[in-house]
Design goal:
The chain has 227 residues and is α/β, with parallel strands linked by helices. The protein has 2 domains: 3-122, Rossmann fold, CATH 3.40.50; 126-225, Winged helix-like DNA-binding domain superfamily/Winged helix DNA-binding domain (Arc Repressor Mutant, subunit A, Orthogonal Bundle). Helices cover 43% and strands 22% of the residues. The strands form 3 sheets. The chain has a 5-stranded parallel sheet with strand order 2-1-3-4-5, sandwiched between helices. Strand 7 (136-139) and strand 8 (144-147) form a beta hairpin. The radius of gyration is 17 Å and the shape is globular.
Length: 227
C-alpha cells in the first residue's frame, strides 16, 4: 500500500480528500500546517506528498524546498486555479506536478497514480548505455547525471526529462510529447509543467541557465538537446 502525506490547513478539504484517497487504497497521513508536515515527513518518508501552498505558518514553497533539499519523493502541489504565479513558483521550488482547487478527487487520484508510476518506471529502468554532451554525463546503469564529474541532485522527474532528451539528441520535442513521455499525460497535463522543469534542469546542467547551450528552446514548439 502506497503512503501519502497530505499537508493542508483547510480541515474540510483535508478530511474529504483523505477519505476519497483512502477509498482508492492509499494510506494517508495528515498535517494541518507546514511545521507539522515537515515533522511527519522526517518521521517516515511517504511515497508521495500532497502539499497546499497557502499554509498558516511556513509557506508551501518553503516546505517544498526543505523536502527537496533531502529527498526526491514526488510532490504534488495544490493551488488556486487562477494563481499562475503560485503554480510556477511551486514547480520551481521542486514540485513535480499540481492540482487546482476545487480539487476533483478522480483527477487527483489519476495524477497520484501517474506520479507513482513514474517512480516505478524510474526504479525499474536498467540500461547500460551512457550519454555525454558537453561536461554532462548520463550514467543510466547508476541512475545518475554528472556535471564535470560531480553528481547532480536531480529529482526523478528531472532525471526522466534529461533521459528523454538524451534519447532524442538534436530532435525537437514538443511540450505535448514531453508531457506524454515524462509525465504520462495525454490530456491531464499543462505546458507550464514542462517549462518550469526545463528551467530547473537548466539551472543544474547549464553554465549560464539564462543563455542555455545544451537544452535550447524551439520557439512555439518545445525544446531540443544540442548534442
Amino acid at each position: 500500500m502506497n503512503s501519502l502525506l497530505f499537508i493542508e490547513d483547510d480541515d474540510a478539504i483535508r478530511v474529504a480528500l483523505t477519505l476519497a484517497l483512502e477509498d482508492e487504497g492509499y494510506e494517508v497521513r495528515e498535517a494541518p500546517d507546514g511545521r507539522t508536515g515537515l515533522a511527519r515527513f522526517a518521521e517516515r518518508e511517504p511515497d508521495l506528498v500532497l502539499l497546499d501552498l497557502r499554509l498558516p505558518d511556513l509557506s508551501g514553497f518553503e516546505v517544498c524546498r526543505q523536502m527537496r533539499s533531502s529527498s526526491i519523493v514526488p510532490i504534488i502541489i495544490v493551488t488556486a486555479q487562477t494563481d499562475t504565479y503560485d503554480l510556477v513558483a511551486g514547480l520551481e521550488a521542486g514540485a513535480d506536478d499540481y492540482v487546482t482547487k476545487p480539487v476533483v478527487p478522480k483527477e487527483l487520484a489519476a495524477r497520484i497514480r501517474a506520479a507513482l508510476r513514474r517512480v516505478h518506471l524510474h526504479e525499474a529502468t536498467v540500461a547500460t548505455s551512457a550519454a555525454k554532451f558537453g561536461d554532462i554525463e548520463l550514467r543510466r546503469e547508476q541512475g545518475i547525471v554528472l556535471k564535470a564529474g560531480v553528481e547532480l541532485n536531480l529529482t526523478k522527474t528531472e532525471y526522466r526529462l534529461i533521459c528523454e532528451f538524451a534519447d532524442h539528441p538534436n530532435a525537437v520535442l514538443s511540450r505535448d510529447q514531453l508531457l506524454e513521455r515524462v509525465w504520462g499525460y495525454e490530456y491531464l497535463g499543462d505546458s507550464r509543467l514542462v517549462d518550469a522543469h526545463v528551467r530547473r534542469l537548466r539551472v543544474k546542467i547549464e553554465d549560464q541557465p539564462d543563455d542555455p547551450r545544451l537544452i535550447v528552446t524551439a520557439r512555439g514548439i518545445g525544446y531540443r538537446l544540442l548534442a
